């Protein structure tokens, strides 16, 4: 009988939003059991957080390095670790667990520099371990169906890509000093060289790349900081050029008043347009050239990709948590295949991995260079 994979977590202690989301996602398809964690660097908070999650006291760590070493030599040690720390810790934590022979499931971004990302990709390949990256929106069944439609040529030659990720949670003024926003997102030492860029900007970039199948070869970018006393960008605008002649625009903002979590993708092909809004995840609109707008819904669309990511019949809404769970399910399929010495199954082939993370950091690095050069066209680094 197949057992649950033993999962550990670094970060995500009491009060952490994204850690709880990861834990819920891991449980939905019953593929994992959380058995260990370095949930905080503060020993007491680590113990309290672990106790609240029913972890054994001896497996509640306050040092991720100690956790990696201890779990690697246990007969019942973890097989995968979820990393839900601030950005600057992603690379060192992932490195410690990869070197210990443990699969990695990491929140985005992969790291805070392209060099960090490339080193992680090389290490994961060397160790023959899975490195999954939780770009949540790629788990939605309708976005997977959209990707299948693009691959099948149903919208024709892709001409225009428009992607948006807008929020307003950083729109309010902050006090002089800039660090009392109650989080690390305005600290370059923890967030990295980009604020909104490395946060929701990378989600937008991956979404456009995932569904369209296209990677831009050049960008023209402008970063803005609207709120006084803020150190990092809170608004990003990017023009995109693709090798096939297609054009694109990406804008990501955390000062877009009135926007809660607007993630919208529109693809315009020579035959049809696709339109998806993350806040309405059970609707994908397809408009053929010269035809009427058509509503596509989960459970009614017929593609293997959508069926694999759908859990309930038509008319039973699925949303953000199920999309997140899809990545954990695909990661479990990949880990079990690697453990058995088998190829990763076809069903899991759209799981975002370390290589998607490297591509995202190459994009971010090009955006930063373009902005620094006065918003000039800048070529993405090969990766």
| Number of structural units classed as domains | 2
Q: Give the strand tally.
A: 14
Low-confidence spans: pLDDT under 50, at least 5 residues? 176-182
Determine the N-to-C terminus distance.
Answer: 41 Å
Can you summarize the main beta sheet? 9 strands, mixed
Which structural class best describes the helix and strand composition?
Answer: alpha/beta
Radius of gyration: 21 Å
Helicity range of the residues?
Answer: 25-40%
The CATH C-level name of the largest domain is Alpha Beta
* Envelope shape: globular
What is the topology, as strand order, of the major beta sheet? 13-12-11-10-6-9-8-7-14
CATH superfamily of the largest domain: Dihydrodipicolinate Reductase, domain 2
SSE order and pairing:
Elements: E1 5-11, H1 17-28, E2 32-38, H2 43-52, H3 64-73, E3 80-84, H4 90-99, E4 103-106, H5 114-127, E5 131-133, H6 141-151, E6 158-166, H7 188-191, H8 197-212, E7 216-224, E8 235-242, E9 247-253, E10 262-269, E11 272-277, E12 284-288, E13 294-296, H9 304-308, H10 320-339, H11 354-372, E14 378-379
Parallel strand pairs: 1-2, 1-3, 3-4, 4-5, 6-9
Antiparallel strand pairs: 6-10, 7-8, 7-14, 8-9, 10-11, 11-12, 12-13
Helix pairs in contact: 1-10, 4-5, 5-11, 8-11
Q: In brief, what are we looking at here?
A:
With 383 residues, the protein is an alpha/beta fold. It has helices at 17-28, 43-52, 64-73, 90-99, 114-127, 141-151, 188-191, 197-212, 304-308, 320-339, 354-372; strands spanning 5-11, 32-38, 80-84, 103-106, 131-133, 158-166, 216-224, 235-242, 247-253, 262-269, 272-277, 284-288, 294-296, 378-379.
